[in-house]
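Subject: Re: docking follow-up (zinc ion)

Dear J.,

Thanks for your patience while I sorted out the input files. As discussed at Tuesday's group meeting, I've set up the holo structure prediction with zinc ion included as the bound ligand rather than trying to dock it afterwards. The sequence and the ligand SMILES I used are pasted below, so you can double-check that they match what you have on your end before we go further.
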Amino acid sequence: MINLESGSSNGNQSRDRNQRHLERGVADLLPDGNVAQYAGTAMIRCVLHDKIVSLKKTRFTKMLIEANGLDPDDFQSWLFSPGMRFHSPDKWWGDLGRRDFPHEGIDFCLFRDGSGRVRRLDHDTRIPVMHDGVVRSVFADYLGQAVVIQHKQAQPDVGTLISIYAHTIPLDHIKPGVIVKQGDIIATIADIRRSKAKILPHLHYTLGQPSSYLSYEPFVWNDMRDPDLVALLNPLGVIDWPYQVMETR
Ligand SMILES: [Zn+2]
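The structure tokens for the complex came back this morning:
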């Protein structure tokens, strides 16, 4: 994990320039006081197949802090630009234009440390799995690979859920059929310094309820966009930490 201000010491010069330009761009979006803060509640109600369900908080942030040797007192809040939020129509990278499809999850990238400085996750960030489950698919996405995990017992009142951890490098043993336990490290965030995309390394996280029509082999990104296959849920409801949302793009 590094500070936004510290830049990259690897790669060629033009790549470094792009990275610095990009980081300045994100930093420009972060004037103090131009954010809204949410502490969250113990659970969130949402509508799933016309039924109101309650999603319980996970221990995701606590596990991520532990897995990456951070101090919980030095992790004040997650920080999201509007484009990083669930169902956002906007990009938060590149030309800041429109997405092809409303955002299928949330992007974990930025956080404030204990002194209020903006920091970000990096390609060495280790990713814990939020619930017990079984790996159902690993597929390539445009920044790395995505891991699809099916959770049968995540919440008995909700039924089976799937979670998708995208733009990662899965650990070698993470293959379809492998059983994972809450807190197991399944991947690190993909190293995108060689990517042409002008974007910061981040974890894309999708949460949803699969329909019986969903097949996992192969699973492709567009499956998340088909409500007949996956009913998407707002993952912010299950995040166990305060978060801030920037009011500017
Ligand atoms: Zn995303």
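A couple of observations from a first look. The domain at 2-246 is CATH 2.70.70.10 (Glucose Permease (Domain IIA)). Residues 13-28 form the longest helix (16 residues).

Let me know if you'd like me to rerun anything.

Best regards,
T.
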